[in-house]
Structures are given as structure tokens and as C-alpha cells.
Amino acid sequence: MSSIRPWRDIARRPCRQIMVGNVPVGGNAPITVQTMTNTPTEDAAATIAQIRRCVDAGADIVRVSCPDAASTAAMPAIVKAAGVPIVADIHFHYKRALEAADAGAACLRINPGNIGSSERVAEVVRAAKANGCAIRIGVNAGSLEKDLLEKYGEPCPEALVESALDHIKLLQDHDFHEYKVAVKASDVFLAVAAYMQLADAVDCPLHLGITEAGGLIGGTVKSSIGIGNLLWAGIGDTIRVSLSAEPEEEVRVGYEILKSLGLRTRGVRVVSCPSCARQGFDVIRTVAALEERLQHIRTPMSLSVLGCVVNGPGEARETDIGITGGGNGKHMVYLSGVTDHHIESEAMLDHIVRLVEARAAEIDAGAPSMDSLHGKAA
Predict the structure, then answer these.
(1) Which of left, alpha, beta for 104 (phi over 0: left; psi -120 to 50: alpha)?
(2) 333, 351 in Cβ contact below 8 A?
(3) Which of 22, 157, 265, 330 fits 194 for a cystine, CB–CB 3.0-4.6 Å?
């Protein structure tokens, strides 16, 4: 329903592209959404099941922690069953990086500075090259090197960026260039400032995140402000929303951030009112039920759910499907912005679900999608 609006366009920061398995990151590739499992990695069955739930929610890439040999021993089965590239999260034990690379990990998440000597870094680089692995340099305000803390007195943007540049040099000294970088902090201002400085200093893809952001509500707000601010400025090529919540929720929040900025359009974008005494039906519970029942829809489309006729008709004109509350338990249904028919309260929820599924099937069969209208990849 939407037309091209140049004032919405976001000019992304130019950078070179790397491959994480079969997923391109950077360049003109769509911004990818990542999450991380929280099951014991050595429990391959539980980890695979969680990865599949994350993929169903839309995850493009999934990271798993590899703190011990039992974890890397489970990696071949996990990689084989995952269906998306797997990033191995490595801290301190360089041998875990070697094992994960041999086990099929698409990317190694490391701090080159904390896995030991230059010789050990060289071993990890050799393993990455031999197995076609990318590397993600992960700088975190909570684990900055002692010399940088002594130099700057506290975590600050300059310290995070200097740490990142030092780690980049370690890889470049070994002629390795398939890397992306993150400079995360739990403080939104610190993280955003560090990413903005880093974006001007390097040409590699950037992995965005506000680390240790908090629970589902608080962490979503912090992440939306920080990641959204950077994306709006054109900075960022892959994102992970860090929440004290199940990883599927991280994926959903990540997509909602991208959808709000018009950068990805997977699934149903719901426009709904906060409800008031004018509502002709229970908007809050209706929207909650629709969001739950429409999670399986991957086709980009829009749905407006408004409780009354004040803003309902106007919002419906801009969405693929709309419902506006009316009197006497009968509500107006809009298709492609045009009033089409009425539906009674008792049948409304099932009716909307069927309409969305039918519209998704039409789009999948060849009708223009919102991505084609905007020229952006889903």
C-alpha cells in the first residue's frame, strides 16, 4: 500500500562485504539479525531445537558458546542441523577456536588480544582460512584490556575504538581480512559514540549491539534507542539485541527495529491503537492474539487494527488489510485501503487471520510486495 517516499531513505555506510557461511554481511546485503543460544552447547539436541525456534522467528545467523571441549565436540551435529550459519563464541582458549573451525563453524567470535601470543593468533587465523571461517572481533566495555583502562581511566569511546583497532591489526598482520567488528557497551551513549567513531576509522562490516541491555521491556527500549540510532545514521551491517529473555524474543525485537526503519520487511507489520473508551472491540487482546497467531507469516505485509473510526479509516488506507471498530459489534474491514465488508466481533479474529494468510499467498504467488516497492531485500 505504501508508495516510495525519498525522505524515508537511509543511506548506509559503505563498507566491504564478508561472508558468514552462505550469508553476506556488509556491502549492499540486507542487515542480518543474530541471536545466541542459552542451552548447554554440549546438549546438541536442546541446542538444535532452540536454534530452529530462532530460525522460525527469523534469525539469519546464530551464535553458540564454546567454553570447553565438550561444546566443540557437539558442534558438527549442531552445524549440520542448524540451517543457518553458526558462530562459535570463543574466550581465552584458542584451542576451542581451532576445534570450532574444524567442526564447521561459519565464524569465530574472539578477542584476538585475549587468546594468547601472536603464535596462537596465527594458529587461529590458519584454521579460519583453511575452513572458510570469518572472524568477529568482539570488544566489550566490561572487558577492556588493563593497559587501555590505565591509559583512559575508564571505559570510553576512544578506549573501545583503540582496542578494536589493535585487534584488527593482529588479524591484518597475519593477512586475514574476513572480519567484522563490534564495540559493545551496556551504556547507550558510550556504545553509540564508540560505533560512530569506529565507523569512520574502518572499512569492515560492523556488528551492532547494546550489551547486557536488560530484560524484555527495558532491554528492548535500550536496544531500540542505541541500535536504532546507529541504523538511522546508516551504520551497522548485522545486529544482535541482547536481552535477558529467550533468544527468539531477541530475534523478534531485532526485526521490529529494522521494520520500523524500513530496512527489513519480513512478516506482518501491525499498526494498532493504544485503545480507549471509544473502542468497538478489545484492541489490546486482539492485537496480542494476532501477533501470536501470525508469527508464521514471513511475507512482508501490513495490518492496521484500530478500535474506532477516529484514525481507523486513515490508517487502513495505508495498509494491506485493516479493521476498524464500529457500533453494535460490527466492524469495518478494509482491503488494499478500500472499505470492503463488515465482520462481527465473534468471528473477527479468525477472519483477520484468514485474510492475512490469503493475502500472503497472493503476494507469494507474484503480486508486488512492499520490498519490491521500496527496492529493499527482505
Answers:
(1) left
(2) yes
(3) 157
Mean pLDDT by 10 residues, the chain (378 residues): 65 97 96 98 98 96 97 98 96 92 96 78 94 95 91 96 94 95 96 98 98 95 97 98 96 95 92 92 96 94 94 91 91 94 95 96 71 36
Return d(Cα 305, Cα 352) in angstroms, integer.
Answer: 10
- CA-to-CA distance for 351 and 102, rounded, in angstroms? 51
Q: Minimal CA–CA distance to 303: which of 366, 278, 232, 293?
A: 293
CB 327 within 8 A of CB 278: no
What is the distance, to the nearest Å, from the Cα of residue 55 to the centroid of all Cα atoms in its chain?
Answer: 11
DSSP 48-61: HHHHHHHHHHT-SE
In sequence order, the β-bridge partners of residue 61 are: 34
Cell 499498526 locates to 271
Q: Which of 158, 163, 154 is nearest to 182 (CA)?
A: 163
For the stretch 10-25, what's the b/e string if a residue is b when 16 or more beta carbons lie within 10 angstroms of its beta carbon? eebbebeebbbbebbb
Global pTM? 0.90
Cα dihedral 146, 152, 155, 159, rounded to 10, equals -90
All domains of the chain in start order, with CATH: 6-260 (3.20.20.20), 268-374 (3.30.413.10)
Dihedral Cα 134, 112, 124, 67, nearest 10 deg: -90
The gap between the terminal CA atoms of the chain, to the nearest Å, is 17
| CA atoms within 13 Å, Cβ hemisphere of 335 | 13
Integer Cα distance of 20 and 10 in angstroms: 24
Would you tell me how many other CB atoms lie within 10 Å of the CB of residue 285? 11
Q: Classify residue 280 as exposed, middle or buried by CB count within 10 Å of its CB (0-12, 13-18, 19+).
A: buried
The region, left, alpha or beta by phi > 0 then psi within -120 to 50, assigned to residue 59 is: beta
**What cell numbers appear for 345 in the block?**
466481533
Do the Cβ atoms of 319 and 271 come closer than 8 Å?
A: yes
Kindly give the pairing relationship between strand 207-208 and strand 238-240: parallel
